[in-house]
Amino acid sequence: MVVSLLIQLKKRLVADTIVDAQxxxxxxxxxxxxxxxxxxxxxFFVPFMPNGKEAAANCHNCNAVYDKTVFTESLKQSYKxxxxxxxxxxxxxxxxxxxxxxxxINTGIEESRKTARLVLTPVAGHIxxxxxxxxxxxxxxxxxxxxxxxxxxENQFIADDYSGFSGLHEKPFRSDAHAVPKKQxxxxxxxxxxxxxxxxxxx
Length: 203
Fold this sequence. Notes:
It is a single chain. The protein is α+β, with helices and mostly antiparallel strands and 203 residues long. The protein has two domains: 2-97, no CATH class; 121-198, no CATH class. The chain has five helices and nine strands; from the N terminus they run αββββααβββαβαβ. The chain has helices spanning 2-6, 73-83, 92-120, 165-168, 182-191; strands at residues 7-19, 32-43, 46-59, 65-67, 127-133, 136-146, 149-154, 178-181, 194-198. The protein starts with a helix and ends in a 5-residue tail after the last strand. 19% of the residues are buried. The model has no long low-confidence stretch (mean pLDDT 88). It holds the Pfam family Zn_ribbon_15. Residues 22-68 form the Zinc-ribbon domain. The chain crosses the membrane at residues 88-109. InterPro entries: Zinc_ribbon_15.
């Protein structure tokens, strides 16, 4: 039921015109009216992708009606020309999805660049989201930077999945700081131990 509401099949009139074709029944010329519908799928009511075309032709002179499956060569040629008409609107859903994906990718790249910059320039107050081992996560907070040494205190609590980081930020840190070289911070980031860097300031 939900899927049928999200994804629907529809059709839209794309051509209703007199074509240069001869009626197979009465042999009249310029009496053939061709109607073409574009079938397409929608996602959240937005055109997503084409799903073929429906076409029929009828003669104004003798009222004969022809489905596209029985078109004569002249009718097929007229139908072929109509099919060349632009139908970019059918892909508007794909264009929207591509734009959203592009924005998400660009945002992710910018966030990665920002995190890498913060890792290279540790400042007191920075907090590192750290993966100690499989299903063991905690936080390390920078309390001071002296020369090549970065002083860190560990959060008193751990989480068993990545989503638990948000809760750890509300928990207290230990008071005993230990020093590590700045290169160690970068190595932790490069190896995936440090997952993210947060700060109270815009840097």
